[in-house]
Specification:
heterodimer, A: alpha/beta, Rossmann fold, 4-stranded antiparallel beta sheet, globular, B: mainly alpha, MetI-like fold, 2 domains
Chain lengths: ~270, ~270
């Protein structure tokens, strides 16, 4: 298999290298009860794709299959010319290094400092001994401080993550994902644990940072309004299948009925 | 009306509070019966108890004043006990760490945890004194036997608690480190250790405490330290010297107690 060096990768253009193709993805946690029933999706290496749909419809599972936090049952996930669904060991870790992830509950290492949490994004590149001794390359440390400033947390470097508020934690979570210099950013309900105002701020931050570095984003999101506001493309899921795929302007109330079922909730 | 509070519906079989089952009640009855039976076997009488008080009084009277004239021997033995406790704690904890990690079921596959747990169970199955007797037979009289015995005890205790602490960590924090493509050892140092470190310091200091206590008795079976001298003094009816030894042990344990409390407070 051909491992692509990040330095030479730009020759083929970021769009080509950063595209993702999911083909016929199936996931069954229990045999015979599929959560994903053959999902196919192409992300062409740019922009914000929002995945909406009711709870339990497999949005999270879909995203987690992409970086293999969840093992897909069958199907293909093509990224960097590799099938992520069948990678193992070193090759899987190498692929994960290029995929950043932002979590619903932030998933910071609570007892580490903010700056150490950011440097977690570089752990795929440092040897265990250097990680243990906190000997990260100067470039990484410099970038970590730059990003900390970019997410509005200048001066928080040596605070422990558990001392931060929810919004601040998610800022760290986003900075950590960007630290990976990812070719794809996955966000799993990044605003569900936050208040409405903070949610918008976090979305803006994520969209801006990803846009600045041309990173395509796939984001699971509950709030349809946020999805419409920030996404270039909306994918609606229901019952483990994709039932809508198009720009936010094309998303009608009828589509929302198909995605979520019922209509009483639409009236308010 | 069903929701009327003043007139609740009549009790039925489904609407009764759970009561202790007959098996549980029978268990309590059996325990009480056995305790009465066991006491009756012991031939405890008031005369015996009264005579015992008299012997005790004589014994205590002969202990004062404590005899510190052989303080050089005392110090030398205490130093050996300290040596046993410190070396056993150091090496015991060092060996226990990897074993505890291997025994944690949330980090390791079954075929690894099973042998690790078996090893821990063996280390814990005998009291340190029994293990000390075995090592005295194996390596001869002296501090080495005591050290080895306490290493075994420390491995059993620390590895078990360390494994349990790891099993209770938040896997979300581990997941996010894993998602960055970090190799396994980096996942351990950044995702796992920060979560268990303060607890680890806690039970390590308890083990140090415990090792100091036991290091003062392994000498009774020939494992070195102050216990041998204590036992000899008892047998020669040198009760004033016995008293001096006991007071020194108390002083030592108190110092250690203060030290380990400080240690725990520092790493909270």
């Amino acid at each position: 298999m051909n491992r692509v060096d990040p330095a030479t990768r730009t020759e083929s253009g970021p769009t080509r290298a950063r595209s993702l193709v999911v083909r016929n993805l199936v996931k069954e946690y229990k045999a015979g009860q599929p959560v994903l029933r053959g999902v196919s999706l192409e992300i062409d290496g740019r922009g914000i794709t929002a995945v909406i749909g009711p709870s339990g419809t497999g949005k999270s599972t879909l995203i987690r299959c992409i970086n293999r936090l969840v093992e897909p049952t069958s199907g293909e996930i093509l990224f960097h010319g590799q099938d992520l669904a069948h990678l193992r060991g070193h090759a899987l870790r190498a692929a994960r290094r290029r995929i950043g992830m932002v979590f619903q509950e932030f998933n910071l290492v609570e007892r580490l400092t903010v700056i150490e949490n950011l440097l977690c994004g570089r752990l795929g590149y440092v040897t265990p001994l250097k990680a243990w001794l906190r000997r990260f390359p100067e470039r990484d440390v410099g970038r970590a401080f730059d990003l900390l400033e970019a997410v509005g947390l200048k001066g928080f470097a040596t605070q422990r993550a558990d001392a931060l508020s929810g919004g601040q934690r998610q800022r760290v979570g986003i900075a950590r994902a960007i630290m990976q210099e990812p070719d794809l950013l996955l966000a799993d309900e990044p605003t569900s644990s936050l208040d409405p105002k903070t949610s918008v701020e976090i979305m803006e931050l994520m969209v801006n940072l990803a846009g600045r570095e041309n990173i395509p984003v796939i984001i699971n999101i509950h709030q349809v309004a946020l999805a419409k506001r920030f996404a270039d493309r909306i994918v609606g899921m229901s019952g483990g299948r994709i039932v809508f795929d198009g720009p936010p302007s094309a998303l009608t109330d009828d589509d929302l009925k198909t995605i979520y079922g019922g209509e009483a909730w639409l009236e308010t | 009306m069903a929701g009327d509070v003043s007139a609740p519906s009549p009790p039925t079989d489904e609407r009764r509070l759970p009561r202790a089952s007959w098996l549980v009640r029978l268990g309590w009855l059996a325990l009480a019966t056995y305790v009465v039976y066991a006491v009756s076997l012991l031939d405890i009488t008031w005369e015996r108890f009264y005579a015992g008080l008299g012997h005790g009084a004589t014994f205590v009277a002969r202990m004062v004043p404590p005899d510190f004239s052989r303080w050089e021997l005392l110090l030398q033995d205490l130093a050996e006990s300290v040596e046993i406790a410190v070396l056993a704690s150091f090496f015991g904890i060092l060996i226990a760490l990897p074993i505890g990690l291997l025994a944690a079921r949330n980090m390791m596959p079954l075929w690894v945890t099973w042998p690790a747990r078996a090893l821990i169970a063996v280390c814990r199955s005998f009291h340190p004194i029994i293990v000390a007797i075995l090592f005295v037979k194996a390596v001869g009289f002296g501090a080495l036997a005591g050290i080895l015995a306490l290493i075994v005890a420390s491995i059993g205790f620390i590895a078990k608690l360390f494994a349990e602490a790891i099993e209770e960590i938040s896997m979300k924090q581990v997941e996010s480190v894993r998602a960055s493509g970090a190799p396994f050892l980096n996942v351990i140092t950044f995702g796992v250790l920060p979560q268990v470190f303060s607890r680890f310091i806690g039970f390590s200091s308890y083990q140090l405490d415990s090792n100091f206590r036991v290091s003062t008795v392994v000498g009774i079976v020939g494992g070195g330290g102050i216990g041998g001298t204590l036992f000899a003094a008892f047998q020669r009816f040198d009760y004033d010297f016995v008293c001096a030894i006991l007071l020194s042990i108390i002083a030592l344990i108190m110092v250690v107690e203060v030290f380990s409390a400080r240690l725990r407070a520092t790493f909270q």
